[in-house]
Amino acid sequence: MNDVVQRMLSDVHDLSSSIKARAAEIEAARRLPDDLVQALRSIGVFRMYVPRSHGGLELDIASAMQVVTALSRIDSSIGWLAGIGSTAPLFATRLPRDVYDEMYRDGPDVILAGAVQPTGTLEETPDGWRATGRWAFASGCMHADWMFSTGIVTAHGKPVSERNGAGGPPLMRGMMLPAGAWRIEDTWHVAGLEGTGSHHISLTDALVPANHLFDHFNGESCVAGPLFQTVPHLLAPMGSAMMVGMAEGALDAIVALAKAGHQQFRVATTMRDSEIFQCEIGRVEAELRAARALHEAQVRILWQRALEGTLKDDALYTQATQSAVWVANTCVRVADACFALGGGAAIYDGSPLQRRLRDLHVAAQHAAVHPRHYVSAGKGLLNG
Q1: Exposure winner among 5, 26, 105, 250, fewest CB in 10 A?
Q2: Reported CATH class of domain 110-214
Q3: In this protein, which residues make up the domain named Acyl-CoA dehydrogenase/oxidase N-terminal (predicted)?
Q4: 164-187 per-position pLDDT tens digit
Q5: Quick one: fold of 229-383?
C-alpha cells in the first residue's frame, strides 16, 4: 500500500464517527449533504481513476476499491456514491481528447454521474445530433458536474443497425453533457440506498455536439495507461467492493449489539454468551471472508491483465461478472443473517441492521450482478 492510499484510508477513518451520526439525515434527504460531497472531493475519491496527466491519482484497481470498501463499511450510500463517482470517469476516457481536456481543465476532482441503459435515442439532424430519453438510476446526479447516458442511434425515427444493414443489434452511443443540460426527476423513493439520490435524468430534443458522443463498449481511450484499456470489465468488480463493505458494516453492527450485553426476550443468556449465537456469527464471518477473498483474487487478476495489456478480453469479463454475482448474493446472505440474529432490536429505524439489510438487497438488484450473468459463464464452461 503506497503513502497516498494510506493517507486516504486515514482520512476515511477520521470521517467515520461523523458519517455514522448522520445516517438518518442522509436517508431523509435522499442525497449526500454538500459538506460530505466536499469531504470526498478533498480525500481524492473522485480522482482515483483520473490519469496523472490530468492531475488524478491513477490508482491501481485494488487500491481504489479498498477505499470504496472502507467507505461502504461506514455507510452504504456514501460507499455507493464513492464507487460510482470514482468509476464514472472511465466513461469519459472514450471521448475525444479535446473534450476530455475541457472536462478536466479546472482540476481532477470532477464528479460524473449517469446511466448506461439505452432508454433514449440519438438522431443526426441538419443542425446536429438530437437526444431524447429518460434514464433511471443516475446515482449522484444531485451533485454531478457532468452527466452521461446511452441512446440508440436512429435515422428517420428508426433504429440504425450496428452492422449497417438489416437486422442485428441496434447501434448505441453514449453522450456526455454538462450537468445543467439535464433534467433531474424526483423519483428516488426506494427501499434501500436511499441517500444515493439515484433519480431519473432526462433530455428532450437536446442538442449533443458530435464530439460529445462516445462508445464505452468498443471505443479507444483518449489517454494512455493500463487502467484505461476497457470500461465494462471494472464495473461489476467495483460493485463487489461496495457490497463487501456494506456486509462488513452489517457484521460490525451485530457484533456491537452483542458486545453491548444485549439479551433477547426469553433467552437464558446474553447474545455474547450464547453458543448458538457464537456458532452462527462464526459461520457468517466465514461467508464474508470468502466473499472478500474471491473479490480480492479477482481484482488481482484484473490488475495483472491490465499491466500485461490484455484486460479487454471477453472471457475475463465473464469471469469478473460471475465473481461479482456470487459476491453480491453472499453479501446479501450475510446481511439477512445479521438482521435475523438481531431479533426485535433490528427492526427499528434507528438500527443499522435493518438499514444494511435494505441497502444490500437493493444493491444486489443492480443489473450488473443479476444471476442471469451466470449463463455466460456456464456456456463458456460447456463449450470450452
Answers
A1: 105
A2: mainly beta
A3: 17-86
A4: 666 789 999 999 999 999 999 999
A5: Butyryl-CoA Dehydrogenase, subunit A; domain 3 (1.20.140)
